[in-house]
Q: What sequence folds into this?
């Protein structure tokens, strides 16, 4: 169960990372459409798990590789945006949110039967 502070920080990171990917980090996402679906922050606010929905899903591996490679740069740019509101910028860990692919797969299976 997340605390109110964790929820506020996760919403702040989600909003600012989404804007960052749309405006300043276009070269990291390599022409794919990236959405930040969920952010989960550790209780001590030092780590953040960021779940990304990537379209087309064929580029997910390339986008994730770019983001892992440029993780420090993304964290630095995020720190410039939220530095006034947070004392410590959490370490970022990126994960692929494949729930949309799973929904499409289930939908396809239901239509077959």
A:
């Amino acid at each position: 169960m997340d605390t109110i502070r964790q929820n506020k920080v996760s919403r702040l990171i989600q909003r600012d990372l989404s804007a960052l990917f749309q405006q300043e980090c276009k070269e990291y996402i390599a022409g794919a459409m990236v959405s930040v679906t969920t952010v989960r922050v550790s209780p001590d606010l030092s780590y953040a798990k960021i779940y990304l929905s990537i379209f087309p899903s064929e580029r997910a591996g390339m986008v994730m590789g770019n983001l892992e490679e440029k993780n420090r740069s993304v964290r630095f740019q995020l720190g410039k945006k939220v530095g006034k509101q947070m004392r410590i910028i959490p370490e970022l860990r990126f994960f692929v949110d494949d729930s949309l692919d799973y929904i499409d797969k289930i939908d396809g299976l239901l239509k077959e039967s």
Notes: Strands lie at 33-41, 47-55, 91-96.
